[in-house]
Design brief:
With 261 residues, the protein is an alpha/beta fold.
């Protein structure tokens, strides 16, 4: 089976580092024209240079997901002046860790805006083009907390669940137009966010970071953290024509850690 994204135009959010960057690089490797979105322009310029380019058109958009109104203006101008987008990957850094009951109301508003509202803005901006092309893939990078809430990530657990149900709703609304909507649920993956979680837990519990790392790994049947590239392979498949009958699913990629089916 050959997984090709040749002649497909893709937007990958949060693509300056970690999972988002790995997805963008794999998309480019598979032939797609990739548009990166993140807020740090200098890093985006460097990532663009790393993308494989065989007569492909790679570009970037500078946007801050804490300003959803501005994002709407930017993405509307972009879609009005560029070819239709075939693939949208919604991927945004998660809310800060902490107990749900101790979170401020502003923490919930901020996370809801950054994740669900911005996802909605981006989806609305690209779906008309997807309908015209009779091809669309919307893939949301969420969390295994959709299936099993994670202790100490109260705001994230709450907002991720909202995004998952939004996605499921879109999946049956858009399917008649050749557009699929799916969620990928990363488990513990070697990214800066995971390192931050380990560091915070280490300080809170007065334990060495190595001890915290080993405790987390013991919860994973395969005995290690995932790599961003492993997420990118799955996302690339879901973005391809090969996955045309996969719609409305939550796909955990977590080494078997999630206990629910």
């Amino acid at each position: 089976m050959i997984v090709s994204l040749k002649n497909k135009n893709a937007i990958v959010c949060g693509s300056s580092q970690g999972i988002g960057k790995s997805i963008a690089m794999q998309f480019a490797e598979s032939g797609a024209n990739v548009t990166l979105i993140a807020r740090n322009e200098s890093i985006l310029k460097e990532v663009i240079k790393e993308l494989k380019n065989k007569n492909q058109n790679h570009q970037y958009i500078v946007a801050d997901f804490d300003n959803s109104e501005k994002l709407g203006e930017i993405i509307t101008e972009f879609t009005n002046n560029n070819p239709p987008i075939h693939i949208l990957v919604n991927n945004t850094g998660g809310p800060n860790p902490g107990l749900a009951i101790e979170a401020n109301i502003e923490d919930y508003f901020c996370a809801f805006n950054r994740h669900l509202i911005c996802n909605q803005i981006l989806a609305k901006a690209v779906t008309s083009g997807m309908k015209e092309e009779k091809y669309g893939r919307i893939i949301n990078i969420i969390s295994t907390s959709v299936k099993q809430p994670i202790q100490g990530l109260g705001v994230s657990n709450t907002i991720r669940g909202a995004v998952a149900n939004w996605s499921k709703t879109l999946s049956f609304e858009l399917a008649p137009f050749g557009i699929t909507v799916n969620n990928v649920l990363p488990g513990a993956t070697s990214t800066q966010r995971l390192q931050n979680i380990i560091s915070n837990k280490s300080k809170k519990l007065s334990k060495d970071e190595t001890e915290i790392t080993n405790e987390l790994m013991r919860e994973i049947p395969v005995g290690r953290f995932g790599m961003p590239e492993e997420l990118a392979f799955a996302v690339t498949f879901l973005a391809s024509e090969n996955a045309s009958y996969i719609n409305g699913i939550n796909l955990p990629i977590d080494g078997g850690r999630t206990l629910s089916l």
